[in-house]
Every structure is written in structure tokens, then in C-alpha cells.
Write a structure and sequence with these properties.
There is one protein chain. This protein is α/β, with parallel strands linked by helices. It has a domain of 202 residues: Rossmann fold. Helix content is 37%, strand content 17%. It contains eleven helices and 13 strands. Helix 1 packs across helix 6 and helix 7 packs across helix 11.
Amino acid sequence: MRLFLLGCTGFIGRELVPLLQREGHSCTLLSRQPASSSASGLGPPDVARLQGDPAEPATWRRPEVLEALAAAEGVVNLAGEPIADHRWTPQHRQRLLDSRLVTTTELVEAMGHLGTPPRVLVNGSAVGYYGTSPSGSFTEASPPAADFLGQLCAQWEAAADRAAVGIRVVKLRIGIVLGADGGALGKMLPVFRTGFGGPVGSGRQWMSWIERTDLCRLIAAALVDPAYVGAYNAVAPTPVTMQSFATSLGDVLGRPSLLPVPAPVLQLMLGDGAKVVLEGQHVVPERLQQQGFSFHYPDVAAALAAATSPGSR
């Protein structure tokens, strides 16, 4: 399948693109990085790269971008400014919105103008769709939260759903992605390896997570299997508390996990963005289980062991 990829040059893309190539797909990446850049670390040299900001409408008027999109049979859109890396100033909130809503809206409109549009759009979303809860459990049937993240995700998904009739739309509500070279785990590993790790905040908040290999396998399956349509919780079937996660990580590394990161420290660093880490939600992949998706890493201890093994990135 010929694929057009957005937001796939970073943490997830480093594993996703080689997987897609091994499965016989040809990939064209649209990225803000220069087309000749090797910074993405994607390895195989035969990945076509186009430079452009997908959140800029002008990008979608360029002939080479439209030509690549017209040639595509499938699209993966994971573009979006990181949620928990910065304080949520008004300017950053706008970047969070634009990087998702403008990108997806422009992508869908461009696809709609093609004579033969791609057959499938796999679009990102997040478990932030549900808001946070210390005791509730969420499935794909649960409604969106009224808070900022809930409404951002709801609007993001609505933009994808405006794809033209005949385009199969798959929306992945992604949890915390585990991989040693990025994301939450990548930030925690240096601290834990020195023996100073521990749970963040109270430790009682839920973490709904997925190992990166399983997420990439899910994206690959959603591209080719017509049974995938609509929203899916892209999380492992076993959410854990932050305390359990820290204990498992300490055990895997052979280090103690006794020193918690106080909530005020994280709030000082991230402001409103700390909510993503300090408050959690128990999310289950009901639809994936119904469709028989087989997780390679359903257990957090095995996922952490795989992510931190010498052969992992």
C-alpha cells in the first residue's frame, strides 16, 4: 500500500515506519524537518520525505504535497504538539489546538478534492478524550469530558470524521506509549537508573498505557483490515496505578522506586500540563478485545522489560 504519513518522524515513527516498510508498504512523510534531514533516525533511505508544516494551510496548496497525497492509498495522521512537555500558556494551548485541528481539517479537505482519495485514514486521538477519574472506567462508548483535553480530542476526532464518504476512518485514542527513547518512560529512565526514581504525585492515579510495538502493530493492522472503523482505545488491557508502574520499573532495572516526585514540583514545571500525569483514568480497549487484537505486551512488567532491554532503541 502507498502511504502518506504525518507526525511520524519522532518517537512513534522511529518504530512505525520501518515496520510498515517491512510489511511491504511504501511511505511518504510530511514533516517540518528538512527533507534531507537524518535527525528523525528512521533508518531506511528509501523513505520519501516532504518538508512542510501540516498546520499551515499553504502546505496543502503545494503541488508536490497534493501529488503525494493523490498517490496514496492510506494515510496515517499522528501530528500534534506534545501535550505534557510545556506549561499551558495561552500560546501553547493554541499550538495544541492548531497542530491537531488545522492539520486534520486541511488534510481531510485536501483528500476530499482528489478524484480518487485514499481508502483509509488512521487518525490520532488520546485517552484525554475521557477526562480524569480516580475510580471510573472508560470504554469507547464513554462520552468526552468537558475539560480542555476532552474537547480538544472530541474536535480532533470530529475533524477526521468529516472525511469524504468512502474513506474508512479509524481514530486511535492513544494512552501513554512506552519506549525507552522517548515519551514518559524516556524521561523517567535516567532518574530510575540512578536509584532516585519513584511514583509521580500520589501514586494512586491510573495509567492507561501501551507498549510502542503494540501501537505500531495496531496502526499497521488498521490500515489494511477493513474491520477497523471508528474509535478505538489504543491501550493495553491492564491499566496500572502510578505506584505499581514505578514499582515494576524499579524491579526491571534492579533499582529502588521509593522517592516520589511531589505534585507541586511537576505543577511548577508544567502548569496545567501536569494534570496529564497527576490525574489519570482507567481506560480499557473494549473494541480491540472484541475484534481479537492480540497484544504482544498486555502486562506492564513485560512491556517495561522489553522497552529497556539492551536491544531496544
